[in-house]
Specification:
elongated; mainly alpha; 4 helices
Length: 77
């Protein structure tokens, strides 16, 4: 079921959003709805990280490989 929602958004942002939505041939309301749904889904990724972070160990040979070390330095907290 759809419901009406009032939002207060900068005029320039609304204008850019309408232009983008028109080019995509979808209503601006659907753009907002899909973005809100993605925000909620993004929380699932955070729960996954909290559950599995620190559960895996890497062999010592990985630390000796400079490519692996660079990847770990960039992406592992």
């Amino acid at each position: 079921m759809k419901t009406k929602l009032t939002l207060y958004v900068e005029k320039a942002a609304v204008k850019r959003g309408k232009i983008w939505a028109r080019r995509q041939k979808i209503p601006l309301s659907r753009v907002v709805e899909e973005h809100l749904n993605r925000l909620v889904t993004a929380g699932a990724g955070e729960r996954f990280l909290a559950k599995w972070q620190g559960k895996f160990t890497l062999p010592a040979s990985v630390a000796k490989d400079p490519r692996s070390a660079a990847i770990l330095a960039k992406h592992v907290r």
